[in-house]
Amino acid sequence: MIDPFPLGSSLTEAEQLHEQLRKTGPALPATDPDGHRVWVITRYDDVAGLLVNPRIVNVRPDGPEGSPGLKLPPALARNLLNMMPDDHRRVRALATPAFARRRIESVRGIVQHHVDELLDQLDVSSDGTADLMAGLTSPLPACVIAEVLGIDGDAAARFRAAAADVMSIDPSDRASNAVRVPAMTTIVMVLLEVIADKRANPADDVISEWIAARDVDDRLTEEELTSLAFLVFLAGFENSVYQIANAIGVLSERDRAEVLVDIDDDARWRNLVQQLILDAAPGSFAIRRFNLDELVVGSQVIPPGSSLYLSLRAATADPARGNRPDLAFGRGPHYCLGADLAVMQLDITVRSVFRRYPRMQLVTPLDSLEPRRSWRTHGPQRLPVNLG
Hints:
By secondary structure, the protein is α+β, with helices and mostly antiparallel strands. The chain has one domain (11-386): CATH 1.10.630.10. Helices cover 50% and strands 9% of the residues. A hairpin with a 2-residue loop joins strand 6 and strand 7 (300-302). Helix 12 packs across helix 13 (266-279). The protein is globular. The termini are far apart. The relative contact order is 0.19.
């Protein structure tokens, strides 16, 4: 039996594991880290089909309380990852305009400002080395998300500090709850304060738009409003931190002259960014799902109400995919709302780093760096570089 959920895999190890899973079979019975029996689905046609199947849902049918695809307190559980299809369509329709491509393009200057500011403030040692994880890739997404949501001043500082605490913990260590719980509580309290302030003083930001949907049009419940704001942080934070760190590490080990040519050519750079989305992808699985009906995948019969883990990594790398779209950000009704923002942060940050430090080198090869102790997210805990 192959363990699909090992802790602390490097990017290369994750790629090798999911290649092995796909070659083993299209549907593999397994035990998840919580001890539950699950099914891992590995091949492109099956994964792509299940992602758009309306009979595959995010909440266990007739399951006990506390069995959603993402474990959160009740006040935060009414989010897009934990909703049945009808509620999901309603809330997503309200959330989508805030992340439309035209609006996200207006955020480009915000991202560039924070990247430049963080690079200006890098803690560089006397021998010219710096940790880009601590100084750049970890704080950046929290800065950007706070500004997009409309969190500023003291609230933004508390939000960023709590986000840094979330990133500092070892997710495999139960004792880390001593840090995680207060940090998550702070994030929720900041969001509640900002929502109250925006009710009194609406502005041109995402939270103000959602408050109007809640208060004026009565299309959101109060819990849905809070949970939606929290989800934007949760979904867009950790993945972007490691996507950017992985991309810097991956490019650092490629032919530097060619990378610098790509950076200076807009068309070549756009193509490279699209490839980096796959080569540096930190996550392997879609959020856990449940089947309402009996499924047949390959020769396996999967009973209704089973836990399904869809391997986006294995499916995207499946030779049978051909020229069809990759699944890095999912597909269909659960396609990542923040995909354009994530790609923009990757684009601007990586390009800025190599333009500013064209001779930068990793102090240690990427696959030798200590990885995050998580089965959900793959990336280094530190990214030490010599800036050249």
